[in-house]
């Protein structure tokens, strides 16, 4: 029997798909993204053009040329030299940035160290110690930071003794003096060959890093712990110290001396700086303490028992077993805490510390105008610093994350 293949119909043929522009997945995402970008661009264009028209109607100048104009004021606290009527507004901006970063960096270090210490004390088996740590956290974490800044400035540092009755924090050596005008301390004056000591110190740090990596690899392969602390401390002290003495000790100290009604020489930190540093450190340490406590509690108790069963002392258990496993839980909120430290430093305007907001958004704005440019530059600085901190800590966070098998 002959079979007509032309009359066979394929049962597996699929119907033609109908193209729907607004619901097709191949073009929908791109179309809506372009539509959103166009809407954002239109809104930005409207705001910029409208602002430019209003400024022009009022005869107000725009642009960043004012940064090269001489500023008629100076900062009483600065890390780089400047002179009123000579230094430009651009230099004032740099002074404000450096002042902000200086106090914020010190506060981040101090609050992190203090917060780790308080966080461990929160879990102490001693009832009194744990309750004192709890009281510290609850008091400083639950009161506004601005009130704390004003309290430290008016209620503590403004009540310090006068210059002639300064508090000697150096134990009678009269090197570190605190009074109502600030903190006075010696200032190093390096000689011509002191850079060799600095280079030797950098080489010592590199050697210590290499030593610690070697010790870690050795421990991973053999299980034996190599004591690196004493050797690292010896390298950090012996190598720069040897170079320092061989080059004739090229470092002198400018020590503050009382002459008349004030100290002369050395370095001086104004009361506003010390107040802001103390307030930032204590306030953000209370948040760090809770992050550390929560991170430690996130580690299974069996890890602690297992570490003790192999003979590790409690201090070694905490540093080698518990803290490394708690870091993935500590670092993410730590990012926000460090960024808040930078941003909260802007409240220094309440006590007169010359940070970026005080110098640039207040004094410079009153003298030069250019409100949009000044505010925009200040916002861009804080955003850049916050994003940089977030980027760096996210890199570290990825390295300490536990990898499951």
Gist?
The protein is an alpha+beta fold and 405 residues long. The protein has helices spanning 25-57, 89-122, 127-141, 145-156, 194-222, 229-246, 271-297, 301-309, 314-344, 356-368, 371-400; strands spanning 167-168, 177-179, 182-185, 187-190, 251-254, 257-259, 262-264, 267-269.
Quickly list its features.
405 residues; alpha+beta; 4-stranded antiparallel β-sheet; 11 helices; 8 strands
| Low-pLDDT stretches | none
Structural classification:
alpha+beta
DSSP strand content: 5-15%
Label the overall shape.
globular
List the domain count as a whole number.
2
Widest beta sheet: strand line-up: 1-2-3-8
Q: Report how far the terminal alpha carbons are from each other.
A: 65 Å
What is the CATH topology of the largest domain? Answer: MetI-like fold
**Cα gyration radius (Å):** 30 Å
Assign a percent range to the helix content.
55-70%
User: What's the quaternary structure here?
Assistant: single chain
Report the CATH superfamily of the largest domain: MetI-like
Main sheet attributes: strand count, strand direction, barrel closure? 4 strands, antiparallel
What is the architecture of the largest domain at the second tier of CATH?
A: Orthogonal Bundle
Q: SSE order in H/E notation?
A: HHHHEEEEHHEEEEHHHHH
- Quantity of strands, as a count: 8
Reading off the top of the CATH hierarchy, the class of the largest domain is best stated as Mainly Alpha
């Amino acid at each position: 029997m002959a079979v007509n293949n032309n009359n066979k119909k394929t049962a597996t043929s699929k119907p033609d798909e109908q193209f729907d522009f607004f619901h097709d997945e191949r073009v929908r995402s791109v179309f809506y993204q372009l539509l959103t970008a166009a809407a954002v661009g239109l809104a930005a264009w409207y705001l910029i053009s409208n602002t430019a028209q209003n400024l022009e109607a009022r005869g107000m100048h725009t642009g960043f040329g004012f940064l090269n104009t001489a500023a008629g004021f100076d900062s009483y606290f600065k890390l780089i030299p400047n002179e009123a009527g000579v230094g430009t507004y651009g230099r004032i901006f740099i002074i404000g940035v450096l002042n902000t970063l200086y106090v914020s960096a010190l506060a981040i270090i101090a609050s992190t160290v203090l917060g780790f210490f308080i966080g461990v004390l929160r879990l102490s088996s001693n009832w009194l110690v744990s309750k004192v740590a709890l009281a510290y956290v609850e008091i400083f974490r639950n009161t506004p930071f601005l009130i704390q800044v004003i309290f430290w400035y008016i209620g503590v540092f403004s009540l310090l003794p006068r210059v002639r009755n300064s508090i000697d924090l150096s134990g009678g050596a009269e090197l570190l003096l605190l009074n109502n005008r600030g903190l006075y301390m010696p200032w190093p004056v390096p000689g011509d060959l002191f850079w060799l000591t600095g280079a030797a110190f950098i080489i010592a740090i590199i050697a210590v890093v290499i030593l610690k990596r070697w010790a870690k690899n050795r421990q991973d392969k053999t299980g034996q712990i190599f004591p690196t602390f004493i050797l690292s401390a010896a390298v950090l002290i012996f190598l720069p110290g040897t170079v320092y003495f061989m080059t004739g000790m090229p470092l002198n100290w400018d020590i503050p001396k009382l002459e008349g009604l004030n100290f002369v020489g050395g370095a001086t930190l104004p009361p506003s700086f010390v107040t802001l540093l103390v307030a930032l450190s204590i306030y953000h340490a209370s948040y760090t303490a809770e992050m550390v406590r929560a991170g430690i509690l996130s580690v299974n108790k069996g890890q602690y028992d297992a570490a003790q069963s192999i003979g590790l002392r409690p201090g070694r258990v905490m540093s080698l077993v518990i803290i490394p496993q708690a870091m993935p839980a500590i670092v993410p909120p730590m990012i926000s805490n460090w960024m808040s430290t930078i941003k909260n430093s802007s409240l220094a305007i309440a006590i007169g510390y010359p940070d970026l907001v005080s110098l640039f958004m207040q004094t410079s704005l009153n003298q030069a105008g250019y409100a949009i440019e000044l505010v925009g530059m200040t916002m861009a600085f804080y955003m850049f610093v916050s994003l940089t901190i977030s980027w760096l800590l996210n890199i570290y966070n990825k390295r300490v994350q536990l990898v499951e098998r």
